[in-house]
Specification:
263 residues; alpha/beta; Undecaprenyl pyrophosphate synthetase; globular
């Protein structure tokens, strides 16, 4: 009898997943999802892995699965928080090196490969990254630039939301100064759109839904400007364990919230 329990559980999960897919496929769906992929190291610790940084490899595999789910549902914009500038400074060199190799493999072997539909964009500072990683990312951006009809993935790497705002204001001031405008004139004419078009994500819609895993309930300096009107979804699962049911529940919650707003 006990041997039947796992089979029954899997059957129930499969049925529940199909029902969730049907419900979410009928919408409404977000145009743009932001993902804070937290908990790779915690998951590795729970699994008893000796090298916690290996969790990043499992996290990359999970990211590819989630992108597949997004593609199947027609969600055309995804931004993933890969690592912050603080992560690069705080973590041990060996772990950072493993993370960078994982990123290089992910963009080269999967996202930028022929036949992949994804157009790759970058949010962050490539100068803060190892040369090989920066080169792989720049190549992926260039080689996928022609995929204008496909879904877009933005990799937030070496990224910080506050620094993004600083850079946006700096670019705006430099642009206006080049026309001979004074500070008083710039201040009088400054609009929200002026800031938006100087962000790393310029030209993309703001995220409608942001999902964070690992149970942490904070934004951690991610898309501070762009997330002003986004729905936030916090999931207890660590990122490598983030399943399709977790994903579909987040979409269901988003759709339910929109319907209540429209009621």
């Amino acid at each position: 009898m006990k041997a039947m329990f796992p089979l029954v559980r899997r059957s129930c999960q499969a049925l529940y997943t199909r029902r969730l897919r049907q419900r979410t496929a009928n919408g409404p769906l977000p145009r743009h999802i932001g993902l804070i992929m937290d908990g790779n190291r915690r998951w590795a610790r729970q699994m008893g892995l000796a090298e916690l940084g290996v969790g990043h490899r499992y996290g990359a595999e999970r990211a590819l699965k989630v992108l597949g789910w997004c593609e199947s549902l027609g969600i055309r914009h995804v931004t993933v928080f890969v690592c912050s500038t603080e992560n690069l400074a705080r973590r041990e060199k060996a772990e950072v090196a493993l993370l960078m190799r994982t990123i290089e493999e992910m963009v080269t072997t999967h996202l930028a490969r022929p036949g992949s539909p994804w157009r790759v964009r970058i949010a962050g500072t490539l100068e803060a990254l190892p040369t090989t990683t920066a080169r792989a990312l720049a190549t992926a951006v260039e080689s996928t630039a022609g995929r204008t009809d496909g879904p877009h993935i933005t990799l937030a790497i070496g990224y910080g939301g506050r620094q993004e705002l600083v850079d946006a204001v700096r670019n705006l001031l430099s642009e206006q100064a080049a026309t001979g405008a004074g500070l008083t004139g710039i201040a009088e004419r400054l609009t929200v759109d002026d800031i938006t078009r100087n962000l790393y994500t310029a030209g993309q819609p703001d995220p409608d839904l942001i999902i964070r895993t690992s149970g942490e309930q904070r934004m951690s300096n991610f898309l501070l400007w762009q997330s002003a009107h986004a729905e936030l979804r916090f999931c207890e699962a660590n990122w490598p364990a983030f399943g399709e049911i977790d994903f579909l529940r987040a979409l269901r919650s988003y759709g339910t919230g929109l319907m209540h707003c429209d009621a």
